[in-house]
Amino acid sequence: MNGVLIMELIFGLILSMIVLAVMVWGAKSGQFDDGEKQNSGLLFDSPDDLNDAINRDNKKKKEKRNKK
Amino acid sequence: MSDIKCTHCHIEFNQDVMIKEGNLNFCCNGCQGVYHLLKDDGLDSFYDKMGNNTIAPPLKIEDDVNKFDRESFENKYIKIDSSGNKKIDLIMEGIHCAACIWLNEKILYDTDGILEVNINFTNNKAVIRWNPNIITLSKIISKIRSIGYNAYPYDKNIKEEKATKAKKDYFIKMMVAVFVSLNIMMIGVAKYTGFFTGIDDEILNAIHIAEFFLATPVLFYSGSVFFRGAYFGLKNKIINMDLLVASGATLAYIYSIYVMFGGVGHSYFDSVAMIITFILVGKYLEVIGKKNAVDTLDTIKSQIPTDAVVIKDDNKVNISVDEIAEGDIIELKAGEKASVDGEVISGSATFDESSISGESMPVVKTNDSKIFGGTINIDSVIRYKATSDFEHSTLNNIVTLIEDSLASKPNIENRANELSKSFSISILSIALFTFLGWYFYLGNFEDALINSISVIIIACPCALALATPMASLIGISWLAQKKLLFKESKYLETMAKATTVVFDKTGTLTNGKLNVNSKSLKKLSEYELNLIYSISDSSTHPISLAVKKDLEKEYNTSLISYNLENFETIPGKGIKATYKDKNIVAGNLELIKDNGIDFNIDSNMSLFIVAINNDVVTTFELEDTIKNDTIQTIEYLKDNNLNIVMLTGDNEKVASKIAKEIGIIEYCANMTPIDKANYLQKLKSNGEIIVMVGDGINDAPALAIADISIAMGSGADVSIGLSDIVILDNSLQGIIDSFIISKRTYKFIKQNLGISLVYNIVTIPLAVMGYVIPLVAALSMSLSSLLVVGNSLRIKNK
């Protein structure tokens, strides 16, 4: 029984560290810089908006490749 | 007449003035143009995203967009990266909602040559990167303007980069601390329950280890802020609250590690995490405040013109404002903003000086008239001689004044900070003596350490640190319910201690709009009434607009606006026009006399006299009216022994009338923004604690100097950005509420401090004498915090 509890504790810890790491990555990559824009994100999840986001990412990647 | 919404901007207008296009309605050609542009480009989902929000109708911008491609501009604002791509920082104008951001980003991203666009909704700052071989900056700006927005460059300086980095840094630290504390508290529930119901040693050890892993990043990463503060404090020979927090948290951490390995006693990893978290949240809010101040300053700076047209050897040369020298002849066209101060040498024009004086009445400038940098030429070309370079101009002085004031804005040190210096030294000394005393008395290191840690933990500044913020939080939320936005809780204390209240006049004590006070209408025919309506409808001058509004209110639907001919504006006097065989002259007494019409009137208000074919048919007298609650507010302030001063850019006659009406004895008229700021500086040097209430950009320097600055919610964005308190519903009752709630909250802050001090006086001796183990110390620390929280909740009970 103790073994199960300890395993749960370890697993919970690992999961929470992963979540924390993801949140810190999000903050460091500027995703939380504009709180109001983030809150309005709901408005920008139509297929067209998501396609636009992918196109912009591709544009950035292409530019980075050309730079190299 | 019913109002309907414009299809583009969603603002409601009278349906008779709308441009109809099938089922669509537009308030102006600008909105119609932008609507079709968006539709043709397949961007009409903008209106879905906009929802029910309104936006401003498209801006009419007259300046030359090619200035963005000039070398002087590029040297100042554009950065070039290693690939030759260019980047600029801009402040966007016209952004009202997320849909506006979406639209601008979408239309720019879809433009060839633009590599990156990022517009920040919070502060309207944008970063654009582009390939100069494909597109120019002038084309990019034109694109933004074509959809009804505008953009100004600003110089991203080190201060902003530091403030941005600090904010991000604190945010991440705070996020880690809060996240971890939540997890530690969940595990803590199991631990504390186990004290009562029994818990296996194996599980307890596992919990200790788990808490250790969680608390470590909080102490060393998030808590590094306190270690740094303590280090610099010690370096400057100051013992501050940071040292107490750092030492208390570190000792509790070290002791908890000892317990974790030794297996005896109780760990305090949860206390370590929570101490760091609570105090870090308070520090983060301070950092946000500083960042907002920097953003506001950048917005002010972006309003400064970037270049000017100077006459050299009969040629017009475009130069950067920094290159303007005293004595240069500058040509200023209609719609342009003066960049430096000067004196008119040719031409005459009407100027909008509201950015300097706050008054909306345009001022006529003719030969030898003084021009102030930052004012706008409304109607004609003039040439003026610069009397200063840009660095020494009024506009730059205002910006520098605000910048300096923001950097050194004084805080009234709250009681906790005053006490914490001596408190921290005392506690550390007591803890050291406790350790030494017990060590030599018992000869047992462990017991001595436990007792000294108990002293530090029990004296740990939780209650002291919470005493002010807890009460402030309740006070702030109460104020928010009354539509009062206090940007920082420390303003509650300052407000409670204020001695003088300084008011701006127009828009603060008065409604800021001209209203018709009286009119003498002889028996007029419908035709004559329509002529009066037509002439008032033909000008955008505030007086004309007020007269037009008054007539519409009185005569409702029956008025007709004719197409007048030979329309002429006489700056500073009025307007003239003809209709069929009628000559219409409308304006002040001077205009009437200039046209040889024999008429006299004795009035200290603004006049709109209308004469048809040299016969005066009606006179309108207009004035700005005081707000409904102005007199009541002044009475309250007087009853509470506060000094009251009114400062205004308006003339002595009007200022005196208003001051008398509302019962203010001390007032100053004809004040420039610098005059207002100097006046406040003088009051401050006499030891007054000043609350300044204003609404316009002309109040900005004074607002920055005041101990507390209050802006009306309808005021200039700049004043709202700089102010400490914003009255969202523009009601002066808000000032009364601010004082009442601040005083009550400050009373409770003092009570809370009393509670935490009494608690320390009682418990520290007990800890020194060894009657308190660290567990009890931690629990009683929580109890003291609870007492403070409970007391704070009583604030709203009256």
The coarse silhouette of chain A is elongated
The chain-level structural class of chain A is mainly alpha
Q: Show the largest interface.
A: A-B, 33 and 33 residues
Number of E strands of chain A: 0
Short description:
Chain A is an all-alpha fold and 68 residues long. Chain A has three helices and no strands.
Molecular structure report:
The complex is a heterodimer of chains A (68) and B (798). Chain A has a domain at 1-29. Chain A has three helices and no strands. Chain A has helices at residues 2-28, 35-39, 47-67. The mean pLDDT of chain A is 84. By secondary structure, chain B is α+β, with helices and mostly antiparallel strands. Chain B contains 27 helices and 31 strands. In chain B, the strands form seven sheets. A seven-stranded mixed beta sheet of chain B has the order 19-31-30-29-20-27-28, with helices on both faces. In chain B, strand 30 (708-712), helix 25 (717-722) and strand 31 form a beta-alpha-beta unit. The model of chain B is unreliable at 408-413 (pLDDT under 50).
Which short descriptors sum up this protein?
heterodimer; A: 68 residues; mainly alpha; 3 helices; 78% helix; B: 798 residues; alpha+beta; seven-stranded mixed beta sheet; six-stranded antiparallel beta sheet; 27 helices; 31 strands; 19% strand; elongated
